[in-house]
Amino acid sequence: MGRSTGSRTTAFGRRAAARDTLGLVPIISAQHLGKTYRSGKLEVPALRDVTFDVEAGEFVSIVGPSGSGKSTLFYILGGLTSPTSGSLLIKGQDFSRLSDGERTKLRRAHIGFVFQRFNLLPTISARANIELAHDIAETGRPFDEALLSKLSEMLGIDGRLQHRPNELSGGEQQRVAIARALITRPAIVLADEPTGNLDTRNSDAVLSMLRESSRELNQTVLMITHNPEAAQIADRILHIRDGRVLRIEQGMGRLPETMLL
Ligand SMILES: Nc1ncnc2c1ncn2[C@@H]1O[C@H](COP(=O)(O)OP(=O)(O)OP(=O)(O)O)[C@@H](O)[C@H]1O
């Protein structure tokens, strides 16, 4: 997305220029993505001609009004649904042309998800939820205790890991969900309204922690949000209206002062 709208004097522009020189590909490249839902004779165009690139290590917010196509884009980026037209390249591989099995494999290897409703399994502890994510990802690596310690400390949940989700506050549950998403060291983290179910204080804390942990682990994050102030925590903000990219702007890379009360 930066090439069409960003300046070469920005951090993104400089990385894009360096990438071009080295012949490297962006970690995510969405090219003319379209999605039309069909039910009977009714057709609902949810995305039209959506094109943008994301550099490795970038934090990008996706904002737009209800019904603008954010969730549809999220599901396509996560390989959870296919676009009707266009292509999605993850690390240069065309996601949209893979079989379901291959897509699942690529998704497990490279993508971590954080959802608005946390989606933790209620019958097992926070720690077991995180371990399960590691097992499902089939990375072939042993469980990384050192990374869990680091994440727990960063996310402030080190004393809470033996508890079940219903014994944790909403903010703590979301921080466990972030640890669960990051434990496999995914190259890409997709977060869908990660603070949608949290009060302001917890929401600010969770956003800041997501930002810090992604910086620390050099992870690419795409975060959907309704909140234009929360969106500022990103490096760039992708505005969507009526299924199209309306504009892309620089974020502040941190929360605005007005939110840090
Ligand atoms: N399964 C579906 N079948 C038909 N239409 C759908 C389906 N899912 C979404 N849509 C329509 O596609 C458009 C985009 O929906 P989408 O959920 O992607 O928007 P959104 O920006 O995520 O909205 P919100 O912020 O309210 O979650 C809307 O008009 C919606 O009604």
TrEMBL record:
The keyword Nucleotide-binding is annotated on this UniProt entry: yes
Residues covered by the ABC transporter domain: 28-261
UniProt signal peptide: none
Keyword Nucleotide-binding attributed: yes
Gene3D superfamilies cross-referenced by the UniProt entry: P-loop containing nucleotide triphosphate hydrolases
Cellular component aspect of the GO annotation: membrane protein complex; plasma membrane
GO molecular function: ATP binding; ATP hydrolysis activity; transmembrane transporter activity
CDD domains assigned to the protein according to its UniProt record, in alphabetical order: ABC_MJ0796_LolCDE_FtsE (cd03255)
Record InterPro entries: AAA+_ATPase, ABC_transporter-like_ATP-bd, ABC_transporter-like_CS, ABC_transpr_LolD-like, MacB-like_ATP-bd, P-loop_NTPase
Key words of the record: ATP-binding, Nucleotide-binding, Transport
Similarity field: Belongs to the ABC transporter superfamily. Macrolide exporter (TC 3.A.1.122) family.
Database matches in PANTHER family: ABC TRANSPORTER ABCH.1, IMPORT ATP-BINDING PROTEIN
Protein name (record): Putative ABC transport system ATP-binding protein
UniProt organism field: Bryocella elongata
